Structure formats: C-alpha cells, structure tokens
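Box 3.1 A note on notation
Throughout this textbook, protein chains are presented in two layers. The first layer is the amino acid sequence; the second is a token string describing backbone geometry. Keep the layers aligned when reading.
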Amino acid sequence: MRIDRIADVDELEDVLSRPTPEVIETMGRLEGDVMFLGAGGKIGPTLARMARRASDAAAVPRRVLAVARFTTPGLRERLRSWGIETIACDLLDRDQLARLPRVPNVFYLAAMKFGTTGQETMTWAMNTYLPGMVCEQLRPARLVAYSTGNVYPLVPVGRGGSVETDPLEPVGEYGMSCLGRERILGYFSQKLAIPAVLLRLNYAQEPRYGILVDIARPVLAGKPVDVTMGYFNAIWQGDSNAMTLRAIEHVQVPPRPINVAGPEELSVRRVAEEFGRLLDKPVTITGTEAPDALLSNGRLGYELLGRPSVSPDQMIRWIADWLARGQPIYDRPTKFQARDGKF
C-alpha cells in the first residue's frame, strides 16, 4: 500500500475499511444480509464498513448490521453515516439477544480479554457461555468467529510458529476461556449444522493500538522496553479485516480453524531500535529474550484468504509518524509481554 503518511482518524478508518478486489468478489457472491456481533470494539467498526463498501462495490443490496452495547460516544452515529444499521444490545441478556434479526451471515467478534484477572466469571461468561447462546438463538447459515492465538502454548522461536493442527495448550484463564469458546462453537456447529470458521488472530495492528504501539510508546516517552517476550506476530488490521470477510466462503462443519497472523517473527528489540531511529530517541532495553514466545504460523490463512499487503516496516513508519504528531490512541495496552496468560 503506497501511502507515506496517514493524516488523521478519518483517513485511517478509510484505509482500514478499503476492500480488496477479492473481498468485493466475495461479497458479490455471498447471499443475504450480514451482522457483526460485538461490533463496538477496536476492529468491528472498520470491519463492518469494509463489508458495506464491498457490497456496494459489488452492487449487491444487503443490510449490514452492527450489534454492540455502544458505550463509545459517537460510534453509532459514525456507523450510520457509513450506511451501517446499528442495534444496541447486551448480548448476555437472553431477551435482548432473542430480539435480534435473523440473518444468514454472522461475524462473531464479542470477547473479553483486558481486565480478565479479577473478573474471571465474566471472562468465562463472555468467551464461553455467550457463543452457545448465540448459536441457539440466531442459528446462522454461516458463522465466522474470532478466536485467538492464545489458545496455543508458547513455542520455540525460529520454528515458524504454531499451526492449526498443533495441540491446544493455552496458558492462563483467558486462553483457556477462548479454547472453551472454540469447543462450544464446535459443539453447536455440529448439533445445529452451522458451518463455521474459527479465526485465530495474532495480532492485529493499527496506529491507535497494538503491539507495535505498545513498543513505540515507551521509546517515545524515554522509558525502557522489556524484551523478555522477545518475539511476536503482527498483521495490519486492514489486511486482517479483508481476510476475515473472505473467510465466510470457507465455513464448514465442524468449524475450520485458520490462523490470521503476520508472516514474520518480529523481534521486540529490533522493532524498539527502529522506533528509536524514526523518533530520534535513545532506546533502553531491559530483560533478556526468552527462548519461546506466542507465535502463530499464518501459511494456511494466506493460501485461503490472501497474503497481507502491508509490511511490518510500513506499519512501523506509519505508527512512528502517528505518535510523533500526537494523534489519538486507544490507550489499551495489549499486555503481550504477559507470559503467564494473565491480562
């Protein structure tokens, strides 16, 4: 993607929601309306907008619905301005869930990660109990559900990362609850004949949040960067959005797991040093790289859903420029450094 600078939030959200030709083709072939559950988070708005733009480009009239509690001021209005219908709903409220319209294509984004330590019961309710409720109540013809690379164990650096057929051995209650989500969706997929895909995302990035932002911010502030969790995967959110929408054509019973991850094992140390160069700041490193990390192999995802178009170097340049100009961020750290699974 040939953009030197992302000027502001409006341009950023335009870039993140710009559909590829392949996404337009997918939305052109897809039958029926689409609904995004848990659309009020960091990914949902631009993902829903990409579906809207791709459907319009394919000249397919359909409803695109975004469902969330909508606690962020102005979000519903922004989604509506993009031609997306919004429905305020507490998904854990069975009566509210039952009132949602029945549509054939559902993208399941609802989850709880941040603040899970100390709120374990809510974590399990959101990540494990709710998926079963959604399947029972909505019974979609096709379901694409976000999972996470946290269902895998830490693996040795330099061996390519976990693949979809590897044993699932999550570290900590968050990862275990996400494995619970996969198991519950698998059960209801087979019981109710719901074809589904489980997207193990690891990790989406854009200038307002993500591991790259979590590394750049201490560099900019003159604070040390811990490299104990020394390596990670990163994928541009616009690329993960495109892969997510294309996944609707790869649903099956039982659900098919697909990793959505950047192709490189990025070094925290080297990324911090590059941010130091771009931001003209000295870099202080603490810790020593552990021999293992949470790493996913995205090869299957590239074969089925396309390769990322934005390189790590491009993401780093955009993020350095964004932060240097004091543009808005979400201020919600990923806590990717956690090696005990506590978030």
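The chain is about 40% helix and 15% strand. The mean pLDDT is 95.
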